[in-house]
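Working notes for the structural subgroup meeting. M.R. asked for a predicted model of this chain before we commit to crystallization trials. I am recording the input and output together here so anyone reviewing the notebook later can reproduce the run.

Input as submitted:
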Amino acid sequence: MKRWAQTAVMLALVGSIPAGLRVAHAGQLPEDVHPDSRSRLPPINREELDVERREIYDAVIQIDGSADARMGAAALRLHGSGTNLRFLGPLGRRLTELAILTTARELDQPYEWAMHELDGLAVGLDELLIDIVRHRKPITGVGDPEAIIMEVGRELFTTRRLDSDTYASALARLGKTNLVDLIDLMGRYASTGATLTAFNQQMPMGWRQSLPLPFTEPDDIHPDSRSRLPLRPGPYQTSVSALYGRMASPGGIGPGQIRAYGAGRQTLETEVGERLMMLAILATARAHNSQYDWTVNEPRALAAGLGPRLIDIVRNRRPLTGIDEKDAAVITFARELFGDHNIGAETYTRAARAFGQRNLVDLVGLMGAHAADAVVLVAFDQHLPEGHQPLLPLP
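Returned structure, recorded in token form:
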């Protein structure tokens, strides 16, 4: 099984609900939610999947053995095209770049914006449309499918939900496969944006920062890497913009270089431990109002050693008084990363001191993966399996 398929299996297993959490279900499902899948998408039909995604489906069912394994972000993603979403997705490059720019704009992520503004222009995205996204101008007069892509992104990232009418319009205009690809793409670039923001990746020397931000970014960066991490030795893999004939992915900087500092999940489990990893997951779920992800993971957090008082602090966004330094570092980091879209220098120094740069890279990657899941879960309104009590208070 390919590496991406193995990752999807792992995410699907994380999406299953512990049996001990089954209690009476209160409330009715919305009209656009299927009673079997408990989401806006129908239950996945195995026969519609290609060979690789059938492997994912079969592995999840074989390991978990319950209907719950057919729910969650990984199951929802199986409704997409299964292609390389940026370069080969049925949406096409122009609309794909519009979706990425909309994500970068709503998350105030300047580096992601700069790289994809160039790519958007290179594949024919209109400058006037880019300017509408950049300055969050009204989309009145913008035609579909561009308008609905922008509307979906703005609503998802500002309200942490997707209204039924907006969803219905997007489904009618894009179709199921393209809509799943769109949401999945936005989630993935929200994860990438989290990595870039956490490590304060700045523009390459000589490049203009063209995204209006509501805050001043810290200046705690290395002059060569243009981020909080020192420059790694080359050689570097770069790409060239077809429009400008210049590097669109400068050597030695960017999300790939940041992620390369990490050592992987196994090292994170050994050196940081499951308890703090579960705390990072819960803090991310809380920041995104992700009921499904929170309720799935709260019992696991308790089993990993998180105390009820600490969980209550995260659940109800209480002050971080009288708690362990590492616990406080994780919660503060998540709150700033997903709430402010900007990590202050003091917060970064505190987390780097607590975990070390290598483990912090992987911890941010874990948060980013769950942020991506949250986008998918909320867009398709994934409800808990019948008989499970929601554990996260939502507006």
